[in-house]
Write a structure and sequence with these properties.
The protein has a single domain, classed as Alpha-Beta Barrel (TIM Barrel). It has 11 helices and 8 strands. The chain has an 8-stranded parallel beta barrel, surrounded by 6 helices. Helix 1 links the parallel strand 1 and strand 2. Helix 1 packs parallel to helix 11. The longest helix has 19 residues. The chain is globular. The structure holds phosphoenolpyruvate. The site of phosphoenolpyruvate (PEP) has 13 residues, from strand 8.
Length: about 250
């Protein structure tokens, strides 16, 4: 019942030359059975949206401010992203939580702004290695989930990405049992808070997803796709991940 989503986070990577990767993705996936999303740096949102227009590739931002407009040098609003052609925005990525001190309350406010602006919010959660080793993973995820999400969200406007911080960009992934445990927990919490709508909200896994491990991750119940960093930068790496999700 939930449509798969293969989402790419380009982080602070990519210039105009990288748009050829979108041309390649379009050619490789003209009519995919899953959704495809690429979130480039803000400088590329408008140009990427133009290249992706009419294709199955959606374009998103990597952050937005909680305010509609104003004196926030260097920031970008939800309305600016939609104006540039974005349909989605990643919020609360662990790199933003770490580098910019974003709290759950900040992420919730940004998510509210994104939804008001008509964007689909991809809200990220994840534990540190210390928290994992200290047996606190579910407590941490439960707290982030409760604090980062607004009260009125739907499967159409919000996606959750579970991204263990220690798995991002490291080549390490949790065991399949650990992924299943956290995704089952998130699903149960979503249903507890949002009722039937909680069944419709997609939960992505993120952290060192590669063509070589995508199929086993997508076979896990309650994994509805992936948020992919490094392996989303080229169509050569991202395309087999999309195909693995289509085949899951
Ligand atoms: C990410 O940053 O969202 C991510 C999952 O990165 P990577 O796939 O490179 O681990």
């Amino acid at each position: 019942m939930r449509r798969g989503l293969a989402a790419g986070n380009w982080k602070m990577n990519g210039t105009g030359a990288s748009l050829s990767e979108i041309e390649a993705l379009k050619a490789a996936h003209p009519d995919p059975s899953v959704e495809i999303l690429i979130c480039p740096p803000a400088t590329l949102v408008e140009r990427m949206s133009a290249v992706a227009k009419g294709s199955a590739v959606a374009v998103g931002g990597q952050d937005c401010h909680a305010a509609e407009a104003g004196a926030h040098t260097g920031d970008i609003s939800a309305a600016m992203l939609t104006d540039a052609g974005a349909t989605h925005v990643i919020l609360g990525h662990s790199e933003r939580r770490a580098d910019h001190g974003e709290t759950d309350a900040n992420v919730r406010a940004k998510t509210e702004a994104a939804l008001m602006g008509g964007l689909v919010a991809v809200v990220c959660l994840g534990e540190s290695l210390d928290e994992r080793e200290g047996g606190k993973t579910l407590d941490v995820i439960g707290t982030q989930l409760a604090g980062s999400l607004p009260d009125a969200i739907t499967g159409a406007n919000t996606v959750i990405a579970y991204e263990p911080i220690w798995a991002i960009g490291t080549g390490k992934i949790p065991t399949i049992e650990q992924i299943a445990e956290v995704h089952d927990f998130i699903r149960a919490e979503l249903v507890k808070r949002y009722g039937a709508e909680g069944e419709a909200i997609r939960v992505l896994y993120g952290g060192s997803v590669k063509p070589s491990n995508a199929a086993e991750i997508f076979a896990v119940e309650n994994v509805d796709g992936a948020l992919v960093g490094g392996a989303s930068l080229t169509a050569q790496d991202f395309s087999p991940i999309i195909t693995a999700l289509e085949n899951a």
